[in-house]
Amino acid sequence: MAELYDKLFADVRFREGLTACLNCGTCTAICPAAEFYNYQPRKIVDILQTKDEEQIEALLKSDTIWYCGECMSCVTRCPRGNAPGLLIQALRSLSQELGYFTESEKGRQQLAIKRTIGKWILEYGYCVFPSEISPEMHPEQGPIWEWEHKNIEAVMHRLGANYKGTGPGILRKIPDEALDEIKKIFEVTGGIERFEKIEAFSKKKAEEMGMKLEDGIDNEYIKHIYTTNSGKHTKTHED
Amino acid sequence: MKIEGKKQIWNDYQKEIAEDHFFYVRSCIRQNFFPGSEKSFLRIMKEELKKDVYENPSHTTCSGIGYHTDIVPFETSMTMVARQFALMTEAGYENFTTSCITSFGLYSEVLNTWEHEPEMEEKAREFLYKATGREFKKPKNVSHASDVIYRFRKEIAEKGKYRLVNKLTGEPIRVVEHIGCHYSKMFPSKGVGGAEYPYVLIGMIEDWGGEVIDYPERRHCCGFGFRQYLVQANRGFSVSCSKKKFDSMEPYQPEMILTNCPGCPMFLDRWQYAISEMEGKTYGPDGTGIPVLTYEELAGLVLGHDPWDLGLQVHQVPVEPLLDKIGISYDPEKKFKAADGSDIGRPEAPVYLKFYPEQA
User: Which residues of B touch A232 (CB under 8 A)?
Assistant: First the structure.
């Protein structure tokens, strides 16, 4: 039986991304994540082409598949036309479908992303929206962003935006009809179903971990997954 | 090798960029962090180059950041893309141009997938019709907005008020160029110069008078990495990638960094600040940083637009040292003023990174 492999193969990105790997390691050599994390895309592609169900299940439950930054530098360099980055996307999708993502520290972060980026896409029609980018969650944005965030309407007006306005322009309000269309697209194509799965599996995990998970991002579980770093992911901790 | 041969090889690295009549879609990140760049693009295209660029207010995010953080399935994102194409079709346009590199990569990926698996295109058409009642034609030409500025770089140079030259020494300004990963690493044929010789920014720099610097980590990712920045626990990855690039370019003494992706200039700008606060390290002379500009901002400067109209005041790494070198005039008093000239305060100065105007 090759259930997990078959599920991966049903993902178009898996079919696009895996031809035949000769294990040369070029992807690992060029990979920014491999330089920082305890991570080798070569190993992942090799496991996948062995079709070993046990190893694939372990991957789906691991931190490993969440280290990639999806920069796709590997795609350019693979001499056999593989795309390890696309395989990672297929693995991450399946990990979320099956609820395996909650088994790893990095995987659990998906709920924080769903409740920020996912929420903003449906609510604003933008992946990010300035009023939501708080200086507290983004200290690296510096005093310039603190000043902008505090004076967002005046600054956006000065820079020529149509902030929350009608008609075309920068950061205009996306018309309600358009937002309705996006929601329908998410319903029809499985986007909402994905969101619901991330929520349901995460709730179960929060209970298991004895943590409070209410709506929004101001709660124990979200704060935990958004900030926790075991410190064991990087090269210096390699066994 | 004969000249014809070389020319032939270079031909393989060219892409077709439409000349006029663009259906323009915006970038989420650009609108949030460097809105003045999109304003500048439209001003240059419409007012200076007299081109037809149309924006439908109902266009939305392509969902690209959701797609690359893996919370949004491919089927959803390809249908979001199909909706943008439908808006283009309905408006009577065939040339699609996008402000965002993540979007550009996603449009390229979706079109490529549809080519390999036509049943996926059929699926997208069914999904879109079911969700919105809309239908679409695929664009004849897909470009990133940097392709479009690249195409008109010589016209911009001709109309230009400034050149990228140090006004005191007459030497060209030394520029590091950084191409967004999703511009051509996935689909080299979709970018000018491909993934091996990405020429889209070099062409602008050279034609506007500057000198391009080569350095070892030139093609390394800025470190966005989607989830690697968006989740606080992962940001060590992001800052490390940027730091690797800064450390690598520093010995070549770059006077500015030019970028074509909406995310990269923000990260290369903000991480210089963060590194200065973390380690007291700055990468320019005398406690300054290396100014990071977008191609729309640079085109605007060349054309003589006011730096504060271009939005250069919202860079964390001050651009004044660069403006002074070229001799671009600006009013320091107006830097942080509102549109009507009223006072809305000013950002605090960082601890180590030199800030302008310096506090009296």
Answer: none
How remote is the C-alpha of A175 from its chain's centroid? 27
Is B83 within 8 Å of A179 (Cβ atoms)?
A: no
Helical pair B74-90 and A191-208, crossing angle rounded to 10 deg: 150
| Domains annotated on chain B, with CATH | 22-145 (1.20.1050.140), 153-359 (3.40.50.11810)
The whole-angstrom separation of Cα A9 and Cα A5 is 6
SS3 B23: strand
A94 Cβ partners below 8 Å, 6+ apart? A4, A7, A8, A11, A60, A100
Q: What is the pLDDT of residues A17-34, one digit of tens each?
A: 999 999 999 999 999 999
Place of tokens 């511009």: B183
Sheet holding B174-178, edge to edge: B211-212, B174-178, B256-259, B292-294
Q: Are the beta carbons of B224 and A69 separated by less than 8 Å?
A: yes
Tokens in use for A208?
A: 């298991």
Q: Would you say the C-alpha torsion B346, B351, B356, B358 has a positive or negative sign? A: positive
Question: Following DSSP, what letter does each residue of A167-212 receive, concatenated?
Answer: SSSTTPPPPHHHHHHHHHHHHHHTHHHHHHHHHHHHHHHHHHTT--
Question: Are B69 and A36 a contacting pair at CB < 8 A?
Answer: no
* Minimum-distance CB partner of B271 among A140, A189, A191: A140
Gap between the Cα atoms of A60 and A54, Å rounded:
10
Helix (H) or strand (E) holding B9: helix B3-12
Spelled out in words, what is the top-level CATH class assigned to the domain A3-106? Answer: mainly alpha
| Contact: A145, B316; criterion CB under 8 Å | yes
Residue B169 distance to chain A (closest CA, Å): 32
Verify whether the Cβ–Cβ distance A36 to B39 is below 8 Å. no
Rounded mean pLDDT of chain A?
96
pLDDT digits (tens, 9 = 90+) for A33-72: 999 999 999 999 999 999 999 999 999 999 999 999 999 9
Contact B316 A143 (CB under 8 A): yes
Joined together, the tokens standing for residue A182 give 């996006």
Chain A partners of B244 at a C-beta cutoff of 8 Å? Answer: 35
Name residues whose C-beta falls within 8 Å of residue B10's C-beta, 6 or more positions apart in sequence.
none
Nearest-CB residue to B68 (from A70, A76, A143): A70
User: How far A44 CA sits from the closest chain B CA (Å)?
Assistant: 18
pTM of the model: 0.96
Angle at A211 between CA A208 and CA A214, to 5 degrees: 115
In chain A, where the domains are located: 3-106
Q: Which residue has the tokens 């909706």?
A: B83
DSSP string, B34-72: -HHHHHHHHIIIIIIS---EE--TT-----HHHHHTTSS
Contacts of B200 (CB under 8 A, 6+ apart): B144, B146, B147, B150, B179, B183, B191, B192, B193, B260
| Closest CB from B60, B230, B311 relative to A125 | B60
DSSP A83-109: -HHHHHHHHHHHHHHHTGGGGSHHHHT
pLDDT (tens digit per residue) in B71-97:
999 999 999 999 999 999 999 999 999
